UniProtKB/TrEMBL annotation:
Residues 507-518 have a biased composition (Basic and acidic residues). GO terms for molecular function: glycine binding; glycine dehydrogenase (decarboxylating) activity; pyridoxal phosphate binding. Residues 378-478 form the Glycine dehydrogenase C-terminal domain. GO terms for biological process: glycine decarboxylation via glycine cleavage system. It comes from the Bacteria. This is glycine dehydrogenase (aminomethyl-transferring). It catalyses: N(6)-[(R)-lipoyl]-L-lysyl-[glycine-cleavage complex H protein] + glycine + H(+) = N(6)-[(R)-S(8)-aminomethyldihydrolipoyl]-L-lysyl-[glycine-cleavage complex H protein] + CO2. The glycine cleavage system catalyzes the degradation of glycine. The P protein binds the alpha-amino group of glycine through its pyridoxal phosphate cofactor; CO(2) is released and the remaining methylamine moiety is then transferred to the lipoamide cofactor of the H protein. GO terms for cellular component: cytosol; glycine cleavage complex.
Amino acid sequence: MNEWSKAISNFTADLGASGTYSGHRGLQIEEPLLFERDSEGRCGVDLPAPPKAKNRLGTNARKGRIGLPGISEPEIVRHFTRLSQKNYAIDTGLYPLGSCTMKHNPRLNEKMARLAGFADIHPLQPVSTVQGALAVIDQLAHWLKVLTGMPAVAMSPAAGAHGELCGMMAIRAAHQAKGETRNKVLVAESAHGTNPATAAACGFTVEAVPANARGRVDLAALKAQLGPDVAAVMLTNPNTCGLFETEIREISDAVHAAGAYFYCDGANFNAIVGRVRPADLGVDVMHINLHKTFSTPHGGGGPGAGPVVLAAALAPFAPLPWVVHGKNGFEVLEKAEGAATQALGRLKGFHGQMGMFVRALAYMMSHGADGLRQVASDAVLNANYVLAGLKDDLTAPFEGPCMHEALFDDRFLKDTGVTTLDVAKALIDEGFHPMTMYFPLVVHGALLIEPTETESKATLDRFIGVLKALAAEAREGKVDKFRAAPTLTPRRRLDETSAARQPVLRWKPEEPARTAAE
């Protein structure tokens, strides 16, 4: 078999469902790994021959190639361009992940972050040379305090979960400063998984607070669980069922009466920004996901930013460093002395993430107070539009309107043989990223949809129309279609359980076949 035939055989063996000899599907070109494209002697740049030198490695001297692929410049460009075409992103379509707030990142923010005065500075520069950057941090901190009604903010935490850690460490330090030993934290059942994990990481015992039939915290159960051993209560408002906790003031009053602190997960602040101040709800500490509320880039593992706003009782424990107003401009307070005697110390190497701070401040200033209020209003409007459009075809677990996200359960799939996962996979074939599945855990077979404020009515109409059609096909018994989906993607449905438990994290070249002479 010649090399051409062998290549075609390999493609069709791996991707026989494509129906083509090449493995390609029209202009969707099959792309092997970079290492599989390796061809010795090819290179994208001309490098001078290294000078001859005496070997000083002894028995550790390299005996073969180091394993970097040899590829020409055009092939490298095509490889990464083709890979980028397989990505789904907020810039290519609706990203309805509930609880994630996948909103548009305005390009104005990107332009500001790329200004030389922000993009080219270094965290180890003398403070006198970065006064503008410190002014940005200070101004962003000011508006975060204004929007939340809180007197203090810690800017250094790197992301939401890091902000949770900061807040819970501050709560622990506050109790210790008062000589109290409180070892229990109450966490709402619908909370993000990071909430109980963070509390446990801080040494607390975690106890779940049940939800009532309305999808909100059971106030009576919460009060019964409060006691002198409770350090804090952690909940989200609006919660992860997409509902506003209507008894939030009663909750916070009960928590404070028991001598505990109220930690609010700020993941859903986008739904109330400019309309409700968390401090007015009795919140003592809350992290803010800048990517969710103030449009800094989301996903890809970073860079992130999770500032934490604190009430006066917790402010002295905010982690270092602090940006403060000094005699000669801004200064960076880096030692636990003076006003910072009780500070937690450092949670991060430097003072937050400058690029995210610039983007968030640009977003705030371009919107203004009325614009941010409109952000929250439109986010809630879009979610309720989705809820209204789908409530007769899907099944909603709770009565009444929602806040920023619409929650459905799997009762509409009963006796069809189709699951929540099947619906999500079928959505991929329709060109939509699936919604969040099976979360929150308080709802069976959950489908959680958050359209955010940046999606148009036309886009939402297409999305609603597709889900209506899929629900109808499920009721018509088209089980085989759902179980086979997705069929139009570069790869078909994977064994996700095995992939999670036995991931292949390293590529290894095939061993060359040995001949009889060897």
